RNA sequence: GCGAAAGUGGCGGAAUUUGGUAGACGCGCUGGACUUAGAAUCCAGUGAGAGCUGAUCUCGUAGGGGUUCAAAUCCCCUCUUUCGCACCA
């Protein structure tokens, strides 16, 4: 017989919902605990990845509820975005319709798994009562000088028909559709995330984040110390700024390398004939996609511009080349090339016969320019460097930079790899940027009282490659808020990562229609105590959200420095070794599993299969194993044959969390052992969750516990009511009563049911978390392992009070020990208390 | 190429925090009970090898070396895998 999971799960979901136990209370006197999982994109139905993610969050959340915290676990939908728009184009529908449908489906599924979510705080980013505040925040950011518009080369995805931020390009491909990204010159809105680069490098205010994520963000921001140098052009007043981390090699600079995108290059090209070599070269390079262009094995190419710059330290003429290996978006977008001491410059100079000049000599002083086959990039001693000759290169770096600062030809500088965040998207299904362009007044922000700028519902999607909002003239054409003259609205929408950069704060006050959220409430709930989500957002969402949070702090919306105190990056759900995905055809529908085995089974499987941060390999058979386990637990309480047995538990179990045994009567060994196991289990489960957040081992211990021989022996062969005294009966009853309470975090429905079956009126979490009593963990006998020269030769059971001397004696008396010690001299005996005896003999 | 993490039965994983009985727990597999049969359930076994069933012994945590009475755990080298970064000046 299978236990009636379907009835049980519905029943408790209804009770929870009626009692509103998951509705978090603002400013409760209890300590707050904010558990948050990354909200889903409403793509249709929940997939296994969601189930895994939310099962982890729910386990933590319910455990914290048992511990008496005022827990908030909200949920919402990251509901703007391209897939909905693309789906609407293909199916001649509207994203609003499909998104709402999908949300309905997912909402039902959330309820059918029984996650403890506070639906009073639900947010959906595509609703104007949410994105209104995104627009409001955009304006505050603009006022603070953190938003600007500029024309530049940006990442363009032909398939998505939109721009992508740098973080959203992986290996030169679109993070969403893997189309190769190409560079396109466009006017774009940017968020000045670089203003916060330094603070984003500082993780001292988070409590517990995986090192991996911190490292990834740190590398992404890419801070490096160096020198900026200013090269004058030979025939004009223009100056080229370069950034270098090797100012010690400046005297060896023989050419300058510029990317075709460099502003000076564009300027020069204006005077070039239509089919000049240099123009052809620039066009060719700029049309290459980012991967081929930046791949390490791409051949370095370039063309001499015929122009010269002057080396600021010695006025030497330096050739200016346009090349394919310099990037416009790092440093100053120009490189002083020192072929002798940089392998890229070396390769290039050899290929084009550009002079090479040795300025760093190795410590052995045996470098000969003519014999060099590769650049010498190590530190060394300066040569051919005027007054700096003889200096060690590390020391000379500061000396040269200081001297250049005096000469006003350069300065110390810090460069970041991080670029400003391009947030304009040339698509419809996103937050409208609250900007109006007036013929008279220029760029005007939409006044706060006119927010939200609502997305028009009627729109032409996907018919042209132009921005869809341009197809709604009655929306685009408006009047200027300042002069009331004719004006046009901005038709780009915001990157959806903007929407997800502050939603965690909105949950604190999700229904506010005056401001994004009340500061008091935000300060009560934030930071998120435990954030859970996939590692794929390490440098996208997780960095943007930190940036937004710091910005919100700086305009006085929140007081905390970081949005997420603890971060858990959960693994993927895989099948046949690969991530579940529709394209690979290896998906398993959670709903089918829930219908067949119940939500508790799916949760147990997910949490038991591996620790949360590791991947979970889906296994149909192992799911049945989880189901079998829950059936066994249920049967333990079911008591079909003997009603007295369940009555006995009801009558005698301890409602106190301490599980102290009240009576003074003697208890038999069997029962004492059982009590030991009960308290040991409490300890183990609590430690696994509290110290390590490892649910797999906690569940394993519960399995082990219910498999105990003691259980079946007591259960099947004895009549406890007449056989045991009252103390023993209490211990016996407690042994059962503890099970639902320890299982609750992982399988809440069955736990509530069992808890009720033994006569409880309270819900499990209301009773609190069980505590173990260390006194009951003291054993009557301790088993020592006896080793001789590190090999196990016997075991020894002694009373805990036995002295070390006695233990040694007893160990030496063991038959097997005697056998191995025969003819040997004992050098030393080591006794590790409560564990082992190690005999050193020769 | 640089950086990080990890390598344990047929599989997922435990023991690594604190050096102290390696393989908990689950899946799978083998045998048995129940059944007309199956499913389900229950019982027993399950790292490799030797040994008469036994007691017991040998080997065994990617490979090699080291520290130690004792190493999956600490140190060094090698290999492999995964992840991140990668013409960043």
What's the SSE blueprint?
Layout: H1 5-19, E1 32-37, H2 48-66, E2 70-72, E3 74-77, H3 82-90, H4 95-113, E4 118-124, H5 128-143, E5 147-157, E6 162-164, E7 169-170, E8 173-174, E9 182-191, H6 197-200, H7 211-221, E10 223-233, E11 239-244, E12 255-258, H8 263-269, H9 277-287, H10 290-294, E13 302-310, E14 317-323, E15 335-337, H11 343-352, E16 360-361, E17 381-382, H12 393-407, E18 410-416, E19 421-422, E20 424-425, E21 435-438, E22 442-445, H13 473-476, E23 477-479, E24 486-489, E25 493-494, H14 496-499, H15 503-506, H16 519-525, E26 528-534, H17 541-554, E27 564-570, E28 573-575, E29 578-579, H18 590-597, H19 599-609, E30 616-617, H20 620-638, H21 643-652, H22 669-692, H23 695-706, H24 709-717, H25 720-723, H26 726-743, H27 748-757, H28 764-767, E31 782-788, E32 791-798, H29 804-813, H30 815-821, E33 826-832, E34 836-841
Parallel strand pairs: 1-2, 1-26, 3-4, 12-14, 26-27, 28-30, 31-34
Antiparallel strand pairs: 5-6, 5-9, 7-8, 9-19, 10-11, 10-13, 10-18, 12-15, 13-14, 16-17, 20-25, 21-22, 21-24, 23-24, 28-29, 31-32, 33-34
The chain binds one RNA strand of 89 nucleotides through helix 7, strand 11, strand 15, helix 11 and strand 30.
